[in-house]
Amino acid sequence: MRSFYHVLINSLIANVTISFLWFALVFWVYLETKSVLATGIIGGAYMLFVAITSIFFGTIVDHHKKKQVFVVSSAITLAFFALAGVLYTLQPASELLQLTNPTFWLFIGVILLGAIVGNVRNIALSTIVTLLVPKDQRANANGLAGTVGGIGFIVTSVFSGLAIGMLGMGWVLVIAIVIMAVALVHIWFVAIPEEGIVHDPELAKKKVDLRGSVAAISAVPGLFALLLFSTFNNLIGGVYMALLDPYGLTLFSVEMWGILFGVAGTGFVVGGLIIAKWGLGKNPVKTLLGVVIAMGFIGALFTIREWPWLLAIGLWLYMVITPAIEAAEQTVIQRVVPYERQGRVFGFAQAFESAAAPITSFLIAPLAEFWIIPYVNSDAGQASLGWLLGAGEARGIALVFLFSGVLISVVAACAFLTKSYRRLSESYRNA
Q1: In angstroms, rounded to a whole number, what is the distance separating the alpha carbons of residues 410 and 106?
Q2: What SS3 class is residue 189?
Q3: When you count CB atoms within 10 A of the terminal residue's CB, does the N or C end of the chain come out lower?
Q4: By C-alpha distance, which of 420, 406, 373 is closest to 236?
Q5: Which domain holds residue 289?
Q6: Average confidence (pLDDT) over 211-223
Q7: Residues 264-276: pLDDT tens digits?
């Protein structure tokens, strides 16, 4: 377990550094250019590349020793960040920030590639749990991983904006390069016991093994249904990704909203620690569906009235139970999928689940702005829905949240009645 803790700490350092630089970049671009288009392209490009590269990265994880994956990923990320630092010094910031300047987009692209390459570490971390943690402790280990993610969320939320405001982009790059170098040196000396690469004779050794990923998933009854459900859950999550900030900023100043999000991030830590202490029960599939029902309930009701305290409490509770969903999915995969196939399965899952939320986000934003919100704020909308949602500027967004929460809760409840649920639960028990 000692090696696992070292890898976990290293992942915390690397992920926080990558997130710190990436969010600082988005803040910097918007503050300096006031271009929503530029920040939209940057954010969309990141999610798109995560989805595109995840299957490829999953295959890499399966075909190489895990320490090699961590070391090479850290080195490449460091190299891209260093290159970005060089590009930053080549031109004055006033010239670099011209959206028509090719160097600006090259600078953005280099940091983007560094962040994307770092994502292979997250896929490898999921397989590391299988490699280094006893079977009966994997749910707890996944909970610790959720805690690490929560800490990263808090740190990023608080310090990225402060660093850009107080230090500027140049020093942000220096900090990111130095800490990433520390992460590389650290992982170099961490022992990850792995006798050799376990090759799967049934799956072809391809750089992008989509067929092998599908075959690995299809070999476990009910697993594809689980991944499909998780993708649908992320589709619903895209609603909150698109509309939560606009909703929150109707109730709070931008400063208070940022602080609230940082405080809410403690919920990730609490939720992860709960799982680390008590696990996920005898059937993580059952736990996952139950938690999604609760999440839908919270998501439906935390905006039912424009009460700041209701939003704050609901958001924190939402964060508390979120780690259980990811941890449950990881625990199931780690147990029912052979170790030599897990990289492909995790990569496949991440590809589809990462792509889901942006799709919904892009679709719901114009629907909400041009149709739902105007209708709810109209006299007819208030007459029909006022009793349910109350009055206020963002009642249209509240309606979207209410519908989305109820929908995912109903779907999760119905999932208990499916053959896929029973078959996957049986596969987990017998693995």
Answers
A1: 46
A2: coil
A3: N
A4: 406
A5: 212-426
A6: 84
A7: 878 888 888 888 8
